[in-house]
Here is the input.
Amino acid sequence: MDRMKSAAAAPSKARYHHGDLRNALVEAAVELVATRGPEAFSLREAARALGVSPAAAYRHFEDKRALLAAVALDGLARLAAWMEKGIGKVASPPGSAARAAAVFVAVGDAYVEFAVRHPAHFRVMFGSWCDHPEPGEAGELAHAAAFPGRDPFQILIDVLDDLVRAGAITTAARSGGEVVAWAAVHGLAGLAIEGVLRLGPSERRQATQHVSRSVLLGLGCSPAVIASALAPLKADPGDLVPKRKG
Here is the structure.
């Protein structure tokens, strides 16, 4: 039994076997961030976790900062997928003000829930130790390869533009809406993953909807439209993805 434990604990090339070392290193980095934080590991340790040589890792990443940049980009792509899936679950009539507002709320739900379920990705995506593109410039980080569709910021831009097209808010009120909406929802996500707000799934979703409602009101959306948008949104945000095991 002791021999089996030692074998399991020792780094081995058998731990890496699927042939895509670059993505395996990204996954290893996410695990190391989750257990030790972004600062407390090296690219060599990520390689060792996979049982490959440091030289093999350096063929894919110049240094740990480059690896973390890849983790950030991977997280942004995953977040975009969550947001798109949240939008797809909105059942209100296309083109209506209620639908545009409901999509806005669904995007906020997806953003916060992604952060809670993937805190390691989220911390790297927005951490000061990792180069991060300015809003709207995600294309500078291999945009075409990472985002087959829209990046998260473009999704937010389109959602706000749809609010204008549907007559839910005015063009004048729309100005600067990206910063207001992002800051509000991101702030809630940060409070949730750092444990400042200890909320269960239903409480978290209610908090997200309160934040989204406040932002919509600030943008000039009518309370009646917001109420009609919120009414159909009864599904748990966990429906966006399969629930965790255990």
